[in-house]
Write a structure and sequence with these properties.
Order of helices and strands of chain B: HEEEHEEHEHHHEHEHEEHH
Number of strands of chain A: 0
Number of helices of chain A: 9
Bound molecules: adenosine-5'-triphosphate, magnesium ion
Helix content of chain B: 25-40%
Shape of chain B: globular
CATH topology of chain A: MetI-like fold
CATH superfamily of chain A: MetI-like
Radius of gyration of chain A: 22 Å
Helix content of chain A: over 70%
Oligomer: heterodimer
């Protein structure tokens, strides 16, 4: 019993290994993870907005195409998509990023995220009260003016909390770049910890990585929750009829 | 059945709103069946009838929120259902007030009223807000300019919605059950504003369940049932001497 605890302690919580790997995790891993998450988020936001517009389009064909895109990327295991894109594109002769695996990884994760973000955008913008859109049109505002003045400002408020929530998932999701193989300087938090744990035959580096992920994600999660609570109080919709 | 207006009648100026053989369906449901009506300008026409009879659809056709499949609709001398009509320009001339107010939730009271003045009338911000402030004062909400809709009572929200429509200086005002979503003690204030507008000579189409308001304020009452206009006339005639069993039955239920 006691021996078991001791083994667990040595395997996961070796202070020497943790102290040894921490500087590299912070100096190399943390910036790489954050950079990857930010790039993937920007790709996801830009593409997601376009796809969301397609999901809400009048043309049935366009809607269908965007729906297929979203369903595919959300339905496949992320690990598979990252492999297919990160290794598939160069194999197919589409070496758009040269031999830079980091860039392929960012692109692949960005594509995956664009599907999730498209759904967030669609739900957020569809949720803007239809009656307010009609009220704006009734006042003589054009479709475009209504979009800019009514739908966008309210839609953005609705999508910011879920988008931030999605960013938290992306931070964790960046660990998938490990699959593609990175140069020493490109390694993210997980890659560094994984390499270290293989070299030392000990998992304490992964524990350190886990703590670092938690330090990033837990405060963000609470910030989003507080934000959503505040929004719910702030902008209650106009009251509905009793009937 | 109402007589179908002849072309010569159409040419008269200052004629308010006119429906000619208007039909509208949603899928298999025929909501307006060959409706013809004349709502004279400077007069309040109240539209009454049971739920689902097509009252809202009739109003919504008047500013083309719904497009009828058949028939023609005129506002004053202009046919709004003619092909190629600029819908946005038309809607500036027709104000609408909804049952559920539909104020812009992210804007303050004054911004709600000033927005279309700036974006549609292209007034500079200061001028638009000055004009908005006048309209807000006129509906008795001076001092509420910077509140958000969520911080107002239903009655106050509806008054702001009226001010928002009036600021555009419409020729015709449409009210779709403007007081139905309000607590009883708030109904009076909104009806008071509508009454004032009516007495001021605004052309109004008012869908309402407030029979007292219809009797006192309307110059004409239209009774609709199942997508058709069943009776039209001055309120005294409709309320005191209903001609059809259907109207009699309806009045028995609501009065
Ligand atoms: N957008 C729509 N799509 C499908 N059906 C509709 C739509 N709008 C209205 N209808 C149908 O048309 C009929 C008439 O609706 P309308 O809203 O004009 O009635 P109403 O007289 O205003 O009723 P109420 O007093 O309940 O408001 C109803 O049967 C309704 O279900
Ligand atoms: Mg209705």
């Amino acid at each position: 019993m006691l021996q078991g605890f001791q083994r667990i302690g040595e395997t996961f919580f070796d202070p020497q290994i943790i102290a040894g790997v921490l500087p590299e995790l912070l100096r190399v891993g943390l910036p790489n993870t954050l950079l990857l998450a930010v790039i993937a988020t920007m790709i996801g936001l830009a593409l997601g907005l376009v796809i969301a517009a397609g999901l809400l389009a009048k043309q049935a064909g366009l809607r269908f195409g965007c729906r297929v895109y979203v369903d595919l990327l959300r339905g496949l295991p992320h690990i598979l998509t990252v492999y297919l894109i990160g290794q598939g594109l160069p194999l197919a002769g589409l070496s758009i990023f040269g031999a830079n695996t980091y860039a392929y990884a960012a692109f692949a994760i960005g594509l995956i995220e664009s599907a999730y973000m498209a759904e967030i955008f669609r739900a957020g913008f569809q949720g803007v009260e239809r009656g307010q859109v009609e009220a704006a049109r009734t006042l003589g505002m054009t479709r475009f003016q209504t979009m800019i003045e009514i739908i966008l400002p309210q839609g953005i408020r609705r999508v910011l909390p879920p988008l931030t929530g999605q960013f938290i998932l992306i931070i964790k999701g960046t660990a998938l770049v490990y699959l593609l193989g990175l140069t020493a300087a490109q390694r993210d938090i997980f890659s560094i910890a994984q390499d270290n744990s293989v070299n030392n035959a000990n998992l304490s580096a992964l524990t350190a990585a886990g703590l670092l992920y938690l330090a990033l994600t837990v405060p963000l999660t609470h910030a989003v929750n507080a934000w959503e609570r505040r929004m719910q109080r702030g902008s209650r919709p106009t009251p509905k009829a009793v009937a | 059945m109402l007589p179908v207006p002849t072309p010569s009648e159409k040419a008269k100026p200052d004629m308010g709103v006119r429906f000619e053989n208007v039909s509208k369906s949603f899928g298999p449901v025929d909501v307006l069946k060959n409706v013809s009506a004349h709502m004279p300008s400077g007069m309040t026409t109240c539209i009454i009838g049971p739920s689902g009879s097509g009252k809202s659809t009739l109003l919504r056709c008047t500013n083309l929120l719904e497009r009828p499949e058949q028939g023609r609709i005129f506002i004053e001398d202009a046919e709004i259902t003619a092909p190629g009509v600029n819908i946005d320009a038309l809607r500036v001339r027709v104000g609408m007030v909804f049952q559920h107010f539909h104020l812009f939730a992210h804007l303050s009271v004054i911004e709600n009223v000033a927005l279309a003045l700036r974006k549609v009338r292209q007034m500079p911000k200061e001028a638009a807000e000055a004009k908005a402030a006048e309209h807000i004062a006129a509906i008795g909400l001076k001092g509420f300019e910077n509140r958000r809709p969520a911080e107002l009572s239903g009655g106050q929200q509806q008054r702001v919605a009226i001010a928002r429509a009036l600021a555009m200086e419409p020729k015709v005002m449409l009210f779709d059950e403007a007081t139905s979503a309000l607590d009883p003690e708030l109904v009076k204030g909104v009806l008071g504003i509508m009454r004032e507008l009516a007495l001021g000579g605004m052309t109004m189409l008012v869908v309402t369940h407030e029979m007292r308001f219809a009797r006192e304020v309307a110059g004409q009452v239209i009774f609709m049932d199942q997508g058709k206009i069943v009776e039209t006339g001055p309120p005294a005639q409709l309320f005191d001497a209903p001609q059809t069993p259907r109207l009699r039955h309806f009045l028995d239920q609501v009065l």
